[in-house]
Amino acid sequence: MNQILITADRLWDGTGSPTLVRPVLRIADDKIDSVERALLPPASCSGERIDFPGCTILPGLIDTHVHLVMSAQETNEAIIAQVTSETEAQLLARIEANAQAALRSGLTTIRDCGGTKTHVQQVRDRIRRGDISGPDILACGSPITTTRGHCHWLGLVADTCDEVERAAQRMLAEDADFLKVMATGGNMTASSDPMKAQYEGPTLMRIADIGRGANKHAAAHVLSRSALPSVVAARYRTIEHCDWRVEEYRYEFDPELARKIVDQNQFVGLTMSGLARRAFLPQVKQFDIGPVKRMDARFACERQMLDFGVRYTLHSDAGVRLCPIDRFSLGLRAAEVELKLTPSEILRAVTSSAAEAICLPDRGILQAGKRADLIVVEGDPLRDLRCLEKVVAVMKAGRWYHRMM
User: Fold this and answer.
1) CA-CA distance, 37 to 42, in Å (whole number)?
2) How far is residue 226's CA from residue 367's CA, in Å, rounded to a whole number?
3) pTM here?
4) Which residues, given as ranges, of the chain have pLDDT below 70?
5) What CA–CA distance (Å, rounded) separates 253 from 270?
6) Fewest Cβ atoms nearer than 10 Å: which of 39, 99, 142, 321?
7) Which domains does the chain have, with CATH numbers?
8) Residues forming beta bridges with residue 245, ordered by sequence position
């Protein structure tokens, strides 16, 4: 049995419990064997032993919504032009590069919510085989959308209920880990309307049922209240963005609908992408566009949702404009500013809560028996989230992928 013993100044286990001072973390093969506190140095270790002075051990971070095929350029048009014009080799190279950058930044698991053909699955499988390094990837393949709907340029278009059913079955045949539907239009696609539902309730229900029949969860992109009741009724596992907008600049939180989300144990994914990082990206304030103008109203409504008790993750939507995948921590700092969340609440949203949301019970918490996914950062991120930018070590499934000490 391969054993690794790790010590540091602090350990935060992902549950929200107080930070453990002077922890001793024992790893056996790919799992956590024990988490203890020791006032004295450990007496024995049959394998590797390493100390991280001045550092904190955390569960590996989980980003529940990324787009590995996209390049985070300054405009939507530039991103779309690149994705739709590049060769297959170029697309695969960017997916691989983004995956490796994600792992170096502390992301040990990511969920890709929309790519081209089977390209993300191909990179996912290469990582699983050990051919290349990268985080664990859950992939939906391409998202289901309408002919001129949001992200139709990713290639999976379906308008009728029969076409939608065939699209969902095709994604399962192409080994998707979950199903993704664009329930409304989106800001990124000019030919779509975020204020309108792209599918009727029975069609949305059919997608979720097909996923459940294959023992896979489903995610729905929702940028207005127009589709939210149908998505909730269909019991989608995650509601991406979960926008309560009823008019261009007006949001209406509905406690009855929120109660159904809570009772059905659904999760909402709150998007801390480039535009939401306005506190740290001065150029965002210069954009004369709706998503920036209504930002205050959006965050106020999301705060109502959190106060109500809706369960949530924080995701980056990495790959969209001004949102490179290796700046995940900047989005978390934005959540602290905009949503008034504490560092502990933020870290739970991207560790234990994120793992539960995307149906991965083996990770997200540093406890005996869980998979040994962890990161080590300088300082104490429970006091200052900027410490997440100082990743000194990354371990995935008991194996070091990055270590500076």
Assistant:
1) 10
2) 41
3) 0.97
4) 39-46, 405
5) 15
6) 39
7) 3-60+365-403 (2.30.40.10), 61-357 (3.20.20.140)
8) 251
